[in-house]
Design brief:
Layout (H helix, E strand, L loop, with lengths): L2 H26 L4 E8 L4 E6 L3 E19 L13 E17 L4 E7 L4 E10 L1
Antiparallel strand pairs: 1-6, 2-5, 3-4, 3-5, 3-6
């Protein structure tokens, strides 16, 4: 057997494994999903824009308490002091199940960590 044929026979299984891995990842995390695992410091806040005119479903998980809010805001900033722009809220929880319809406008999912550093996992899907 020639040297080129041996390399070819070695590369075929590797190529098949790479293609299978890409297909499995594409099936697990389609383009309309958002999945993140983020390290939050004490009292860190992060906002994720929610696409207008969609149905959002998903979850947020952590080991220690955090708070989550769906807010209506032009800037994505959330002070937490006024409830006028807060549409939904979950305070001092370790998990949240999201199932909501977002109308036309600027809406954000805001995550506010508690007073200890931790990793927070978020996964949600937007369907039109």
């Amino acid at each position: 057997m020639t040297r080129g044929r041996r390399y070819f026979l070695l590369l075929v299984p590797v190529a098949v494994a790479v293609v299978v891995t890409l297909v499995v990842n594409a099936e697990m995390f389609p383009g309309d999903y958002s999945y993140q695992r983020i390290d939050f410091g004490p009292n860190d806040v992060q906002a994720e824009i929610l696409p207008a005119n969609t149905h959002i479903c998903g979850y947020i998980l952590a080991e220690r308490p955090f708070s989550a809010y769906v807010v209506s805001s032009d800037s994505g900033y959330f002070e937490g002091s006024g409830d006028n722009n807060v549409l939904m809220k979950w305070e001092n929880v370790t998990n949240v199940t999201i199932d909501l319809n977002v109308s036309d406008g600027s809406y954000y999912l805001v995550i506010e960590n508690g007073n200890e550093s931790q990793e927070i996992e978020m996964r949600f899907k937007a369907e039109r």
